[in-house]
Amino acid sequence: MSLSLVQSRALLGLEAAAVTVEVHLANGLPSFTLVGLADVEVKEARERVRSAIQNAGLEFPHNKRITVNLAPADLPKDSGRFDLPIALGILAASGQIDTARLSGYEFAGELSLSGELRPVRGALAMSLALHASGVQTRLVLPSDSAEEAALVGEAEVYRAGHLLDVVRQFVAQAADAPAPEPSPGWSRVSARPQALVVPYPDLADVKGQLGPKRALEIAAAGGHSLLLSGPPGSGKSMLAQRFAGLLPPMTSSEALESAAVASLGGRFSLARWAQRPTCSPHHTASAVALVGGGSPPRPGEVSLAHHGVLFLDEMPEFPRAALEALREPLESGTITISRAARRCEFPARFQLIGAMNPCPCGYLGSMQRACRCTPDQIARYQGKLSGPLLDRIDLHVEVPAVPASDLLQAPAGEASASIRERCMAARERAITRQGKPNQALHGQEIDTHVLLDAAAAKFLHVAAARLGWSARSTHRALKVARTIADLAGAHSTQLAHVAEAMQYRRANGPAGLP
Q: Which fold has domain 2-189?
């Protein structure tokens, strides 16, 4: 009768819960039982592990009763990450590797039938969670997953390409025997240096549209959300797709957080390291696809856009429930997924860029084509965006159609690089003054840091009363005005800054609409 213990991790959102893989070999009718609240993918590990051990030339204990317990028993486990620790536990319990030498290591990896190790989802999230909780351990992962996990600088990560590469490091040896020689498939992975130059589409490609470009600059400088409204083909999508190039470079912590969420969603790529994400879900996306969910809970588009941009094209065409689900993360920067079995919290600090037509046909107010929509159709279409959601969008901007003569003859616009320099300087002023971007100001912080002039305060008070603004609308206009003042290098928020900020919230509906 033999028992072995191998350490691994299960992912619960961005948390990495410890899992002990207990393997017990006993006499009796040959069987292979796996317990511990394992999902279907984990239960299928029995056949993968059996074939991998045999095809690697190792001995599988066919004549034993094998019991594998994934402890704790009340923690749900999913994916094939437990294949490698289960295989090592069987080999250790049968005496083919030294159980004592497994101490201090944690293993995760999916096995092919030949014994090759395949990458697992969430390796970077696991490494980052261990670092955040102060856990000192050595991670053994498949090659691609090890590259991810090693991005956390303090992590000690080893890559392995095959089950045999791992077994050779932990074979049973005499006390005076020399250490095993390094295998070509086994090595420690050092942290990859950060990318310095990140390519983004250039805003110079967009000709004309000086007003919307100004709005993009303000949004990038202060972290504000933006709604673009205009006829088809006016350039709304081009503007939104170039917005990420105006944002400051990601810090190391921001890059790790963004990459960890992408790793959970299976979207991480080293080629896009330190690049701000731009997520553009189709307008048929459900509320679960946008905010996350499922069993186990997975991050949605709002979390995959963390520290980046969430672009919703054809915004009124999204399901009403999906749009209304954006309210809380727009305010809090996090999203909490609650299910009967568990509760997970994902970060969702994104900048929302929405695009819409002014009416179903798209040509309301256009000088080029006549609108053929009835007033009821227009009201129904615009009513798809609720007042509470529009109230949370800081900038409402009209994007008019560009005449063909301007499109063909106008010179290229200002490059993203020069606009980004101004945005970075304005954001740096805000960080120096208050420790956060202007959009993140709340409550008393607005009164303290906006530094509103008396004339500007009087003007805003009268205008807000006449326009029927809510308290949220007034506060958001103040934060936009503070960003405009930072772009101008002004110490206080003046009347001109407030007047410009009010142009982006002229009405309760989208810009330019009744």
A: Ribosomal Protein S5; domain 2 (3.30.230)
In order of 301, 309, 416, 439, the CA distances from 305 in angstroms are 6, 6, 21, 17
CATH assignment of 203-418, among 3.40.710.10, 3.40.50.300, 3.10.50.40, 3.30.930.10: 3.40.50.300
Give the total residue count for the chain. Answer: 514
φ, ψ (nearest 5 deg) of residue 157: -125, 135
Half-sphere exposure of 408 (CA within 13 A, CB side): 3
Cα radius of gyration (the chain): 28
All CATH 3.30.230.10 domain ranges in the chain, comma separated: 2-189
Q: What is the pLDDT of residue 460?
A: 92
For 76-124, write each residue's pLDDT tens digit.
Answer: 888 899 999 999 999 999 999 999 999 999 999 999 999 999 999 889 9
260/125 Cα distance (integer angstroms): 4
Q: For 239-260, give the DSSP string.
A: HHHTGGGGSPPPPHHHHHHHHH
Question: What one-character DSSP code corresponds to residue 368?
Answer: S
Return d(Cα 447, Cα 431) in angstroms, integer: 16
Which residue reads 């989208």 in tokens? 510
Q: Return the amino acid letter for 347.
A: P
Is residue 399 a contact partner of residue 235, using CB atoms and an 8 Å limit? yes
- From residue 64, give the alpha-carbon distance in Å to each of 87, 113, 181, 352, 464: 15, 21, 32, 58, 78
Longest distance between any two alpha carbons in the chain, whole Å: 90
Range(s) within the chain of domains with CATH label 3.40.50.300: 203-418
Count CB-CB contacts under 10 A for residue 2.
15
Please tell me the distance from the alpha carbon of residue 157 to that of residue 257, in angstroms, as a whole number. Answer: 19
pLDDT, one tens digit per residue, over 325-372 is: 999 999 899 998 887 667 888 999 999 999 999 999 999 988 888 899
Sheet of strand 138-142: strand arrangement: 105-107, 138-142, 156-160, 186-189
Half-sphere exposure of 457 (CA within 13 A, CB side): 8
d(CA 454, CA 374): 45
Using the CB atoms, write b or e for 90-108: b if 16+ within 10 Å.
bbbbbebbebeebeebbbb
Cα angle 320, 326, 328 (rounded to 5 degrees) comes to 130
Do the Cβ atoms of 232 and 357 come closer than 8 Å?
Answer: yes
DSSP state of 463: H
